[in-house]
Amino acid sequence: MIVLTDHGNAMPMGPNSDTIAFEPIQNNGAGNLPGVKWHYGTHTNENTLMWAHGAGADLFLSQIIGTDPGLVTFTGHNETGEYIDNTAVYRVIAQASGLGGGDLAPVPLPAGVWLFGSGLLLLAGLRRRARAA
Question: In the predicted model, what is the mean pLDDT of residues 5-32?
Fold first, then answer.
């Protein structure tokens, strides 16, 4: 089982994080909204959490591309600050499923796309012939 998101949304941090760097979100107790400031109104580029458990979960260890001590110090993401690129998820799933090393292959176009394109070319040819006549 893999639980993750492919991107962050709005980089939430503490309510004074515009003046206090990396201020954590404030826990205001059960039943109360947390103290938070949203820094963006769209998708963001920060690291996000991922959780994997079960057969093949250990394959993610070979996908680590770097470490960032800030992940430990400021966000507590993990003990060492290791991270992977989100495209590694496909490779791990393919490998764990026995589909090979997870090399990305082009996705074939459905037959409907070929038929639609052929139809458009046929219509364009008929229109051209009608104008010539």
Answer: 87
